[in-house]
Design a protein that fits this description.
Largest sheet: 6 strands, mixed
Helix content: 40-55%
Oligomer: single chain
Order of helices and strands: EEEHHHHEEHHEEEHEHEHEEH
Strand content: 15-25%
Strand order of the largest sheet: 5-9-10-3-11-12
Number of helices: 10
Number of strands: 12
Radius of gyration: 19 Å
Structural class: alpha/beta
Length: 281
């Protein structure tokens, strides 16, 4: 287990978490649980644990529609900044601790990645000279695809010797490419992916997990992802077994009266539960 990875977390007074502890995380971790049990809040807590300034970024994402309305009404940048500061102030009385004192995280929310996000990641891909790796993984998803490039600031894929804007393909390809770029661009880091199944057809779940498990190992990246999908969990366990990857965990969040608690299952326990047809969600 890498010294760069989170092994445990303690959350106090952050959103829906009053006094929460969990430990025993692996290299790749999938988080499940019923609606409104705190899966997204758990990811946000990990993000804030790496840097408290990330709290404003989370709030900005959550209230983006409100902020857009303010801009339309010409309220101005100063008021928006005050709005964010007020929201941050209300959430300041919290404590989040992990076994790491300093670490880098990249947080991918459930929304679709936009052009600037691809542009930022691709600049890191070029800097690390990983263009060929990215193209190789792209072909794994679809053998007819030849390469990925940013052209005039826009993401493009080459097919039949012609580049097409990524928007001309399905959302599944966009999500897939973005996940691979996240892994390649963030060596020795921690990646948080909320609602990983969004935009991915269930027939491609196995391909996605094979790439995540393989590339996370190569790049020494720890992954935390949330899901609502039973099929996604089954695919996760199936692919890990196929690749003989034991460094996976499934974190089940649940409510016990007013508190949120967790059970962390290792790879063998995940397989056993699936064989018994128990619902891991």
């Amino acid at each position: 287990m890498s010294e760069h990875f989170i092994k445990n977390i303690e959350i106090k007074n952050f959103k829906c978490f009053k006094d929460f502890k969990a430990n025993g995380f692996g290299r790749v971790n999938l988080i499940g649980g019923k609606n409104n049990v705190g899966k997204t809040a758990f990811m946000e807590a990990l993000f804030v644990a790496s840097d408290k300034n990330n709290l404003k970024q989370i709030i900005k994402s959550r209230y983006s529609s409100d902020i857009a309305l303010m801009l339309c009404d010409e309220v101005g940048k100063k008021y928006i900044e005050n709005f964010l500061n007020q929201k941050v102030e209300k959430l300041q009385n919290f404590s989040i601790k992990t076994n790491l004192v300093q670490f880098n995280t990249t947080y991918k929310s459930a929304t679709k990645a936009h052009q600037k996000m691809f542009e930022d990641l691709y600049s890191k891909i070029i800097k690390n000279e990983y263009e060929d790796k990215l193209d190789l993984y792209l072909k794994y998803f679809d053998s007819y695809l030849e390469k990925f490039r940013m052209i005039n600031g826009e993401p493009n894929c080459k097919k039949n010797n012609t580049f097409y804007n990524l928007n001309e393909f399905g959302d599944g390809l966009s999500h897939f490419i973005y996940f691979v770029m996240l892994l390649l661009a963030n060596t020795n880091s921690i990646i948080l992916i909320d609602e990983i199944e969004n935009g991915i057809h269930y027939t491609n779940y196995d391909k996605l997990w094979e790439l995540i498990l393989k590339v996370s190992k190569e790049q020494n990246v720890q992954v935390f992802a949330t899901t609502h999908s039973k099929e996604m969990i089954e695919s996760y366990a199936r692919v890990a077994k196929k690749l003989e990857d034991e460094n996976i965990r499934f974190i089940s969040l649940y409510k016990d009266k007013e508190d949120i608690k967790s059970i962390v299952f290792n790879n063998q326990e995940i397989e056993e539960r699936l064989e018994l047809r128990l619902d891991n969600r």
